[in-house]
Protein: methanethiol S-methyltransferase
Amino acid sequence: MLRRILAVGYGVLAYAAFLAAIVYTIGFLANFAVPKGVDDGVTGTVWLAVAIDAGLLGLFAVQHSVMARPWFKRWWTRFVPAAVERSTFVLLSSLAVGLLLWQWRPLTAQMWSVEAMWLRTLLWTVCGLGWGLLVLSTFVIGHFDLFGLRQVLARARDTAYAEPGFRQPLLYRIVRHPIMVGFIVAFWATPDMTAGHLLFAAAGTGYILIGVRFEEHDLRRSLGEPYERYARQVPGFIPRVRAAAERAEV
Ligand SMILES: C[S@@+](CC[C@H](N)C(=O)[O-])C[C@H]1O[C@@H](n2cnc3c(N)ncnc32)[C@H](O)[C@@H]1O
Structure:
């Protein structure tokens, strides 16, 4: 009984860490309503800042990619109970993001700055839509599975946890990676782009483009032909306008 309560508490803690990390990241990139935005923090030489920021981004990328691989999951569930495996991944990913946000060094050279109010408003709106698409897509695909809560609740109820499995709900009939599209849009849509924000956006986009190749490699291995067919029919990131409209009607 105690183990079950601890598992649920741990799952909720990991989920809270994720919520804190994502909400802070939104404020961080917008330089809004957070104590330290992407353009704040200790200043020093440019190259030291680039090296530290690249190291922080790289640390997150390695942690997130390695821990998401099936072979790693098989190995470490020999030590970590399967019910809290996902929560542990979520917690460690959130801590890696937290470290990045905390230790991030600003690079304040201005890359672009939009003055026209209508364009500023448009860019902030697009940015908000990117974050919105990301959150919506997690619910479409299985928010509480993605962040480990259903796994710990199944453990608490002493029932077997069944993964939701591969699905093609609405957004996933338009592009294969709507969550990642949301991230990319939110990273780039800003009226004021500094060198530091640009580094974050470029590295984040590069990481996503590489990360989805690993994800799709695993999906191809586990699903085979159905995933091949899906990948032929549905584009990865950029919707085909007519095909998207037709599929949305299916
Ligand atoms: C963070 S989600 C990102 C999903 C997708 N790449 C996106 O950008 O929306 C990663 C997890 O989603 C799973 N996944 C990806 N496409 C899926 C689909 N169509 N149905 C169910 N799970 C999917 C992957 O196996 C992986 O465990």
